[in-house]
Write a structure and sequence with these properties.
Helix 1 (2-25) packs antiparallel against helix 2 and helix 2 (31-54) runs parallel beside helix 5. With 110 residues, the chain is an all-alpha fold. 83% of the residues lie in helices and 0% in strands.
Length: 110
Amino acid sequence: MALAALLILEIVIAFSFVVTSIFMFLPKGNETVHIIFFWLSVALSVLITFIDATSIPSNMRTQIIMAWCGMIFSAIGIIVRMIAGKTNTAANILVMLSSIYGAVGYFVFV
């Protein structure tokens, strides 16, 4: 029953991630909108990675470490975003990869 609730939560987060990603790449000309959706995507990737890593039993250390490694993409994306100082497609793609890794990892690792 608990895994079913986590699966529903993962699906809701994945749907939110898809909507966030669409708005993150739309060329609106308003930098504030891009910043908001970038950081919302980072928050979703952190949430999905946290759920993925904490839903694995504690005796499966290798899978837990592999689940947490998904945050590397987001960390690099944040660094690229800070260095560029503006909207950067590479940073957006790295954050998207982190969320995809976490969502796919939920089904692979658990």
